[in-house]
Every structure is written in structure tokens, then in C-alpha cells.
Amino acid sequence: GGVHLISRPLIKDKGLNQFSVNLKQPLPFDTAGGRTYCQHTIGLRFAAMDDQNMTTHVLDSTPSVISVGRYCVEQGYGFYWPPRSNRPYFISPSG
User: Confidence band (pLDDT; 50, 70, 90) for 1?
Assistant: First the structure.
């Protein structure tokens, strides 16, 4: 499945560095800027996603990303993007 991503500077700005977990082995990512390696993850919770804990991979430089496919396949969420809209949304498993 897909992965969730967050940047190291954002973790630092939010004062969350102490909550990151070292990976036993760096995980490679092929990005638009070339290959990079993830060495840390952090568990984050978002109220908009029913406060579920999300294991998020920390990269030196990345936009914050959640995996839509992972939420739909593994967590039972729906996802809808209305035509011509700039406001897509998730539908929780409870509706």
C-alpha cells in the first residue's frame, strides 16, 4: 500500500522530533528529485480521519501526503472528488 509522508522541518517546527522512531534499515524512496532514504517514522493523529494513528514516514524535503488508496483499501474510507470541484472529501467507514 501507499505511505504517508511528512517533512523533517515540519516535525521540528511542531516540536515533535522526540516522537520520531528510527528505522532499523533506511527505506528508499524514488522521488522527482532522485532517490532519497527515510530513516524515521512518526505516529500522527488527525481529527479529520477519526483520530486514527497514522504511521508517517519522515523525509528531509516533501509535501505532507496521506495515501488515499491506503485509507480506502485498508481502513474502509470512501473518497469522492466532485467534477470541477477543488474540494474532494473522504467518507468515513461510519458514513
Answer: low
